[in-house]
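Q: DUF1570 domain-containing protein, please. Structure only.
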Amino acid sequence: MKTFALLCVVFTAGCAHVPECTAHGGPVWNELKSEHFVMRSDADEHVAKNTVLELERIHSALQLFFTASPTVPLDVLLFRNARELGALMPSLGEEVESAYAFSVRGERLLLSGEGFLADEHVQHRAMVRELTHRFSAWSHWLNPWWLAEGLGAYLEGATIDPALDTVLFGGASRDFVQALSMWGLLPLEELWANKPSIGPRATLHRYASAWLWVHFFFNAEGAAFRRFLGELQTGVPAREAFSRQFSHLTVEQLEAKAREYVRVGDFETEFLVTPPPSKDVKTAVLPPASVHAVLASVVSQRDEVSRQISLGREVDASNADLLAERIWASNPTATEFPSLVELMTSQHPEDARGWYFASFVGEADPALERALTLDPTMWQALSSRALLRGDLELAQQAVRIAPWSQRAVWVLSAVLARRGDCVRAALQYRVAKAIPDARELPAEEPCTQR
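A: Structure for DUF1570 domain-containing protein:
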């Protein structure tokens, strides 16, 4: 239940310290809501608000670049420093500074404020990179490694002018250009293979090459590349789409053009006016029990999950976030599961999470209907009801909201199979298999073409 697929990690120095709530001697935590983000943070309020506004500016700029835009707000956790985040996720080391994560609860951006305060450019690049991964998941479901990381590297160099609401895409990375001049461009076929890098030099070489290939494709083969991205958005396997859109060039011709692009060094840029970003941010103090629920949802050690939940119960055992986290951390077959669900639905009847959980212990359809009445964007409930009813529209809605969710995509595949749409069912099953997830993917639904 606590598995995270981490797409990017940046490191700085520090020592571990698990954050706390005010009831246990910690700082005030705030919840900040903007149009596209919901942030919980123990950083100073002005730091948190400025970070939300910067995220909104980046979101506005990326909307110009991608064919699809996220339709639900992103959950963001901003910690005061890298030590706090590293203490919660020790498997990443004590010095983790940013990460993009997926779990059964949804997608989440984790940031550290301390290192960013020393260098706003570092903060900006990290946030652009992480949001690029989010937009990329919404737009192109089957990104190969070189495309996902190449897009991230290409876009993290974006220069945003908040005074003029403009953005410059495609700026050259000095480190990448220098690496390519010293070591040359890796063949695209080697990047498709995505073999692990050994050592910092090999890693830099791979990322520099991925950046260059994306830069080259956008500026030297723009029409074919955008058609390729368009096919990915429909779920076509990347190799198949690439072969079709670049059939006019042999591998040798493509690599010769890319090497010449590097040699000439004329890295084209694109200057665009961005839509005015949202500047409306509402701030409220986060209750101490909710703080412990948030921390329990992040930590990777089971003992620490239990400790955070116990600390939260000391403060307010009836807190909705804490009850929800206790249920997420439990199992539908656990003895305490039904009583926790009953407590959640009786004490917080207007919370959609409780009714979603209720679908596991009673009549599923009425509970899911209630959950979706309260929160029409709850992709977990949409997906469960789609599978229960064989409802294609609900399954498609769930995938539009959570295209990164292996289960949501698998449910779409299963519903298509039940309707006899075997071609699309098989395609969506391949999409689901390509999504990183520690849970075992259910078997492919039997399908008979009508």
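A: Brief note, in case it's useful. The longest helix spans residues 200-220.
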